[in-house]
Amino acid sequence: MSTLKQELEEAKQSMLESEKKLKFKEETAAAAMAARDAAEKSLKLADLRSSRLRDRVEELTHQLEEFENREDSRGRNRPRYVCWPWQWLGLDFVGMQPRSDTQQQTASNEMELSEPLL
């Protein structure tokens, strides 16, 4: 009888240990599934952000190309550079708009204040 009681007690202990192991495995599996779900959500969010950023980069690139094209077309009709003494002397050069009276007066005043050209 005592041997049977001892074997029964050992079986109960084994059963408790097995239940603890099973509970631990279930908790581990639940944590792993929660981690997987969180990782999937994170990946979806990162994918959404990257697609929005990609769209924004494409939009900005398109705007830059349009701006450069407009600048190129404007630049073809204007002189490349302006030599400052010509402006002060009131001389016209190719592509220059005619000066107003105020601009001519300012230019002559500036010429009087500057050193003479040799």
TrEMBL record:
The keyword Glycosyltransferase does not apply. The keyword Coiled coil applies. Residues 97-118 are annotated as: Disordered. Residues 1-70 form a coiled coil. It comes from the Eukaryota. Keywords: Coiled coil. Residues 99-111 have a biased composition (Polar residues). SUPFAM superfamilies: Tropomyosin. PANTHER family: OS08G0559800 PROTEIN, PARAMYOSIN. This is Myosin-10-like.
